[in-house]
Amino acid sequence: MLVVLAVTVLTEWIGPLSIPLWSSKIVILPMLMALLVTTTLAALHGRMPPALRLDVPLQRHAGKLLNAALLLFIVKLGLMAGHSMPQLQKVGWALAFQELGHAFGTMVLALPLALLLGIKREAVGATFSIGRENSLVIIGQKYGMQSAEGRGVLAEYITGTVLGAVFITLLVSVIAPLGIFDPRSLAMGAGMGSGSLMAAALGVITVGMTPEMIKELTAIAAAANLIAGVVGFYFAVFITLPLCNWLYARLEPVLGRTALARRAPTADELDPEAAMAEEDESPSFGDSVLALLLMVAGIVISNAMGHGVAPQQTLPGVAVMVAIVLAGIALKRVWRRLPLMLFLAVTATLVTIPGGWPLADMLATTTDHVQFMSITTTVLALAGFSVARKLPMFRRLGWRIVAVSLTATAGTFIGAATIAEFFH
Fold it and tell me: pLDDT tens digit string along 59-81?
């Protein structure tokens, strides 16, 4: 816990780093730096002094803490959804249907490619979405970050974070001049649930536009980004992920047997631990409380250092989020069949819908002080332990997972833009 908090402080103090690359740039955010630092510390634990020796038992324990920490993500997304309900009700049909484009565009292109390249269950985690924070939460809670699906979504997340903005800049630079899509459709496609990808795509789409048109395109992209980040969470849980599993079951026996797929590393080569007994990643109640305490400290640090929000403003909002999580955990212990992720998301949404009940506006204002990105740095510092234990697998997947990740990004952009084009 001390190492995770120290890494949170260090990376938030450094802040975002911009690395120029051709006409674009790679932005390394504190959350990615935190992931890389803890991955390195855990991977090199044998060479570290005893005080910093994060060996395998500690790495496994960090995985349990991570599963509990991810619950705060779900609550924050629900709070954002409830508070944004009036804005979401005003959007047009094109925006309402854009998630279909995100979902089907991603899977139609990336899932077959992954299977052709010999990637197995990792393909589900890597292709059911573009692998942003929402995807980490969904896969982490459903399968665990040590699962094949967890490894897939982590690989997708790392690739997209490092290369996504550069790739989308190049992709839009090729597509926009062709005149196939209306600029408004392209702006809608840019709202993929990632601020960095949206900004990179808009930078190309708005070149040469009038100030009025730039304002309109930015508004469209922002609305699309809001829907992808908030409504997209529910869409992924109930539609995209089940559909991806359904497609995998039918396509893998065909595409996974091709000559190209057979030349890929086998499942045992990718993950020698797969034949061993499956680890229990379910945190105990004590672990859950420990993880929440760690997250409270991390969020206060990140909110203050990264977003300039004073601790006295942050703590009430975090307290509301923690209370919802603890209520869900307590109910889960009484009713074991309770779908915890769904319960937390729905509860958090209902308590902040304007006019839903007298305290809705107060809770929304209080929790709005907790910036969404302030949750990510500490969570990804914990996630670094999961990455460290699977580095051999990442090395064996190599270029395959990079190709699949970038194809998923292309698919979600083109899919959403195509859906939008039908409404012009």
Answer: 888 888 888 888 898 888 788 87
pTM over 0.90: no
Alpha helices in 84-132 (DSSP H): 85-90, 93-96, 98-116, 122-127
Who's near 54: CB < 8 A, 6+ residues apart? Answer: 3, 38, 41, 42, 45, 48, 62, 385
**What Å distances lie between residue 306 and 11, 200, 294, 299, CA to CA?**
9, 21, 17, 10
- Give pLDDT, residue 3: 92
Contact of 110 with 407, CB cutoff 8 Å: yes
CA distance 363 to 67: 25
| Residue 421: other Cβ atoms inside 10 A | 18
The residues with which 300 forms a beta bridge, in sequence order, are: none
Residue 418 to residue 367: CA distance in whole angstroms: 36
**Residue from 412, 388, 378, 399 nearest 145 by CA:** 388
Q: What is the number of other CB atoms lying within 10 angstroms of the CB of residue 103?
A: 24
